[in-house]
Specification:
Elements lengths: L1 E8 L3 E7 L5 E5 L6 H13 L21 E4 L2 E4 H4 E8 L4 E8 L1 H4 L8 E5 L29 H10 L8 H18 L3 E7 L5 E5 L2 E4 L5 H20 L11 E6 L7 H14 L3 E6 L3 H4 L7 E6 L5 E5 L8 H9 L3 H25 L2
Parallel strand pairs: 2-15, 3-13, 3-14, 8-12, 12-13
Antiparallel strand pairs: 1-2, 1-4, 4-5, 6-7, 9-10, 10-11, 14-15
Length: 361
């Protein structure tokens, strides 16, 4: 088991997780306020240090130094209190004052650098363009594998940079091809081709019709964004690879079910596992349909115990049990009991109506 410990997570407190180390998918469930999003962010920040030549010490971060005191996984740990310094940093281009975190060299030696890429996909990043400026509660992850939000700009920039005389031509082209490939494999109504007109409008072919990106439903935009974010981040960290789908990476997705049709909620995680065979996923969700497809050791309920610590509890074999039998364990919802109560209410109403009819003659 991977034993995670997070000390003094802002707004949450202490957290202890026990996750099956034989799995590649870890999906967190729990009531609002238990801290799923912030836990995901703390895990993501820690895992970003596992990148070779981690960008943490050289990149500017909008970091609240009190976001958490310590994060550890087994023998590896990240200690803000005793092993880091936070300094003010001025961005010359904008005169913006932000915080930059610096870790002592001895701390970085405690963390194995054994992944090749990381991608954090916040809920807000899958919203409409007008909302893309919203800030995540995990703002310290803004630059940790969080690629460009504007999908249209990203596609156009990759297409324009595809030049047979440029050294990076192969990877640039591969990013777009990868995106179209995974979209088609996720839903074969999406053809593996796109066009860009003279006004830089991007069109996908869906159900035999060309659809401009801005015309797509929120569900289509959300699924495009998830796949684009992973491919963009993987290409950033592994620009020389010729197989982005095979990169050994970490992907963190908050509220993965947002905007997705029920059919897509059912298939999203099995498809991600299949398309990215060397990726480990950390996901937060409220969706019972996402839960229904998870294997033993992939689903975890977060609950605050009497001592105030948030701990994980495995949800046993969701994909082999009837959903109505899993719901009480994962969401404290008993459908059979609700149905029984509804039937009792209906029966009582009928009895009252009969009594009234008798009394009224």
């Amino acid at each position: 088991m991977n034993k995670w410990q997070i000390k003094d997570l802002q707004g949450v407190g202490d957290v202890e997780l026990s996750l099956d180390d034989s799995k590649r998918v870890f999906v967190l469930f729990g009531t609002n306020g238990v801290g799923k999003t912030k836990i995901l962010g703390a895990i993501g920040f820690f895992l970003s240090l596992k990148l070779p030549n981690s960008i943490i010490n050289t990149t500017r971060f909008k970091l609240n130094a009190k976001s958490f005191e310590l994060v550890s996984c087994n023998t590896e740990y990240l200690d803000h209190k005793h092993h880091s310094e936070v300094e003010d940093f001025i961005i010359k281009e904008t005169d913006e004052k932000i915080k930059r975190i610096l870790y002592k060299p001895e701390l970085l030696k405690t963390i194995k650098q054994d992944i090749d890429a990381i991608c954090y996909i916040a809920t807000y990043s899958r919203l409409d363009k007008d909302d893309s400026g919203k800030k995540s509660r995990n703002s310290y992850l803004e630059h940790v594998g969080s690629p460009q939000h504007d999908i249209k700009k990203w596609i156009i920039s990759k297409a324009q940079s595809t030049n047979p005389y440029q050294k990076e031509h192969k990877v640039r082209k591969n990013e777009i091809e990868c995106l179209l490939e995974v979209l088609n494999k996720f839903d074969d109504r999406i053809k593996d081709s796109l066009t860009i007109d003279f006004n830089n409008n991007v069109y996908l072919e869906i159900d035999g019709k060309e659809r401009e990106l801005s015309e797509l439903s929120s569900g289509f935009r959300s699924i495009v964004r998830i796949f684009q974010a992973i491919i963009s981040a993987y290409s950033y960290y592994q620009e020389d690879t010729d197989n982005l789908l095979a990169v050994k990476g970490i992907v963190l997705i908050d509220e993965i079910e947002n905007h997705l049709h029920l059919e897509w909620q059912v298939k999203i995680i099995p498809t991600l596992k299949k398309l990215f065979p060397n990726t480990t996923f950390y996901i937060a969700t409220h969706s019972p349909l996402v839960l229904s497809q998870l294997e033993e050791g992939e689903a975890y309920l977060l609950k605050r115990d009497e001592d105030g610590v948030v701990r994980s509890q495995v949800i046993n074999s969701p994909n082999t049990r009837l959903l109505e039998n899993v719901l009480p364990e994962a969401f404290d919802i008993d459908l059979n009991e609700l149905k029984r109560q509804n039937m009792e209410n209906i029966d009582q109403t009928k009895v009252q109506q009969k009594l009234l009819k008798l009394l009224n003659g």
